[in-house]
Amino acid sequence: MNDSVDKLVIFLAKRDGIDKLVKTFQYVSKLVHWRAEEAARPDLARRAKNWEVASGLSRKAFRTGRFLTGLNALRRSPGATPAFRLLGVLANAGEMVYFFFDHFLWLSRIGALDAALARRMSFVSAFGESFGYVFFIAMDFIMLKEGLKAERQLRKGKEKGGKNDDEVEGRVAKIRADRVMRLMAVAANVADLVIAVADIEPNPFCNHPVSLGISGLVSAWAGWYRNWPS
């Protein structure tokens, strides 16, 4: 019990930990709002909508300056090959645009800037977000493929008796742990891509409250899993 409490404290001390918790509030309240409207309960629907809006705005405020993370990643542009580095540059550039223009979206929604800017800023921010996610997903799939290849090679080496069994199993365990984290990243990025597309090109599927709500929760809980202390 004490260990779980300690991990929760560490998780909530992180910027991403708080963001995933508030994101959970945001998309749970979206689903509650939809259900309350379907059940003709206007008072509950109004309260849920207020909770959703407050959660969304607080997340934007809390992410102030977050675009600098993407700028720093662009400066470092890590990668084993030139092609992978290029994917990293494109992914982080999209994320930087997303977080940068999200500042103006937040300011326009709280009335500090012209409210008419909100729609335009929302489009630019969502476009940058979706652009970045496409390349982040591609990078994760490449690394998943490389991980599977490395695991097969380790297994073959073990079968031939050329390597220590404990060493092989330890390296395989690390590859599998990385695979789980990358699958969580893919799930989160695909879910966030659905949300971004709903802003860029509204359509019945992506803009349905259930699609948005489930996508938001998948993203939040995948991020929760990735940021939870080991």
From TrEMBL:
**Keywords of this entry:** Membrane, Peroxisome, Peroxisome biogenesis, Transmembrane, Transmembrane helix
Question: What is this entry's stated membrane topology?
Answer: Multi-pass membrane protein
Asked if ATP-binding is a keyword of the record, the answer is no
Q: Which InterPro entries match?
A: PEX11
Q: What GO molecular-function term can you cite, just one?
A: identical protein binding
**Source taxon at top rank:** Eukaryota
Could you name the Gene Ontology cellular component terms for this entry? peroxisomal membrane
For whether the record's keyword set contains Transmembrane helix, the answer is yes
For this protein, the parts annotated as crossing the membrane are: 121-144
Gene Ontology BP, a term: peroxisome fission
Q: What does this protein do?
A: Involved in peroxisomal proliferation. Promotes peroxisomal duplication, aggregation or elongation without fission.
Q: Give the multimer and partner information.
A: Homooligomer. Interacts with ARC5 and FIS1B on peroxisomes.
- Spell out the protein name for this chain: Peroxisomal membrane protein 11-4
**Organism field:** Rhodamnia argentea
Give the gene symbol. Answer: LOC115745006
